[in-house]
Amino acid sequence: MVPGQYYLVLSAAVFCIGLFGLLTRRNALLFLMSVELMLNAANINLVAFSYYWGNVTGQTFGLFTMALAAAEVAVGIGIILVLYRNFDGVDVTEATTMRW
Q1: What parts of the sequence cross the membrane (predicted)?
Q2: pTM summary value
Q3: Which residues lie below 8 Å from residue 7, measured CB to CB, with a gap of 6+?
Q4: Domain-by-domain residue ranges, the chain?
């Protein structure tokens, strides 16, 4: 049996990788992937605590988080397509000209 601390360490590592990707990259696709990593880290925490406490509430919230992630990807891909069409690339630093 795997101790619960291992799941928390894994979740913290995945969250830190996602946060590092979000802070250091300029590519919009990598932004989207980094946010997905952070959401998956939250899911690992929810399921780990759900298992620890012996109820399914955390697993239910994990399913809702997966649905939120799917909706976020759909909206994010739409934004990335508009960014690519308008600026011929997915660099988010070029999109500052879209401000009014």
Answers
A1: 6-23, 30-54, 60-84
A2: 0.85
A3: 44, 45, 47, 48
A4: 4-98
Does CATH number 3.40.225.10 belong to domain 4-98?
no
DSSP secondary structure letter of residue 14:
H
Amino acid at 58: G
Tokens of 61: 């919230």
- Give the containing element (helix H, strand E) for 100: none
pLDDT digit string (tens) for the chain, length 100 residues: 888 899 999 999 999 999 999 999 888 889 899 999 999 999 999 999 999 998 999 999 999 999 999 999 999 999 889 888 888 888 888 777 666 5
Q: How far apart (Å, rounded) are the C-alpha atoms in residues 44 and 56?
A: 14
Contact 48, 85 (CB under 8 A): no
Q: Dmax over Cα atoms in the chain, in whole Å?
A: 57
